[in-house]
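# step 3/5: fold
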Amino acid sequence: MTQVIQFKKLENNFEYYVEELASLCQNDFSLINSVILDKLDSKVSLIQKIASYLILSGGKRLRPLLTSCSFHMCNNNKKIKKKHIVLAASVEFIHAATLLHDDVIDKSKKRRGLLTANEVWGNKTSVLVGDFLFSRAFQLMAKGGTPEILKILSDTSVIISEGEMLELSNEKDLTINEDIYLEIINGKTASLFSAACQVGAMSAKSNLEKVEAFKSFGTNFGISFQLIDDAIDYSSASKKLGKNIGDDFKEGKVTLPIILAYLRSNSKEKIFWKKTIRYLQQDKNDFEKALEIINKYNCIKDTIERATHFANIAKDSLGIFNDTKYKEVLINLIDSSISRIH
């Protein structure tokens, strides 16, 4: 029987560094959460109930923390108005809205160990609450953003939607190439990481060089983060992180390990992938067979190498900033994100 790949456990812990970032940004973090709680309010009680169910279900608030951190790394004027607080909340609402829509599209049953909103309240309700969260996000943008910041966040919302549509239009397409897949995860994941960082820097009235540096940091961190998520689904790290191993396979998701495996497979193996992924005709031992092929062609190793490449670009983009605790935590965050699979 094929065993799930085992990796040496590293000392770094992603959750630890997210918590350290939250501690560094503690005052902002409290204010951001206050804005989020306030803006969850609705005269339609079911909207508030569902939105609260998702947003208060244990998410790390990573994206708004990136907004806070980028603001502080760029802010040399202690008297500047902290408009980044409402923008960070806006980023979290955009993220939450995309989660609701993604769960409907993917027919997901669980998120963060809980039943998804669409599983509890149905697809129509979840989509409409997702729309509500997008609308709340734009209200907050208008309150805290300059025209330039509004353009970044509104453009990002378009890019996210395009990424979701690109993914849907290539659903279960095993012949998808790596460039298209990177375009999908840039749209769905990396673009919001990037926007979160940019608006923090812009709120601090930073120069273009630093804004561009954070744009690169967020984009490459986001791509790296998603690629490791892809790899985790086929490794023992899934259980350690509280995820069910093989969920992507069972749902027929075409992620980078599958793309690489299909491209490298012989004709007989390609028939297997078409049966299990394209047509979702999966037998009891098919996941073990999938692991055999993935391991045979070093697809997890290569996915990690690609993620590490983007992580290194993200770290290098921070080179223009002075050495501070904020910068140190961001670098540790990237390294520990890679080590989630170990």
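# step 4/5: annotate
The radius of gyration is 20 Å.
# step 5/5: archive (pending)
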